[in-house]
Amino acid sequence: MPSKTRRRALAAAIGASTLLAFTGTGTSAVAGPAAGPGTSAGTTPAVKYIIANPAFTPLSVNGVPARALYGTYRGAGYEIEVPAHWNHQLVLYAHGYAGTGNVLTVDQPFTPLRQHWLDRGYAWAASSYDANGYNVPSGVRGTHDLIGLFRGRVGRPTQTFMTGLSMGGQISGVEIETYPEAFNGALTWCGVMGDNQLFNYYYNYAQGAAALTGTPGQFPPPFPDPKSDPYVTTVQTKILPKLGTMPNRVGFPTVLNPKGRQFESLAEQLTGGARPGFSGAFQKFWNGFGFPPLTQIPFVFGLFGSSLGGTQGIAPGNTNSNVGTHYSLAKDPTVALTSRQRDAGADTVNDKIQRVAASPAWLEQLEPDHGLKASIPTVGGNLPVPLLTIHGTGDMFVPLSMEQVLYQRAKAAGRTNLLVQRAVREVGHCSYSGTELANGFDAMTRWVKTGDKPAGDNIMAPLTKGYDPNFGCRFTQPDSSDKHPVFAATNPGLAPCAARDRDGAGDDSGNGDHGGNGDGTGGGGNLGPGQHGGNQHAPGRR
Question: Does position 109 have pLDDT exceeding 80, yes or no?
Answer without folding.
Answer: yes
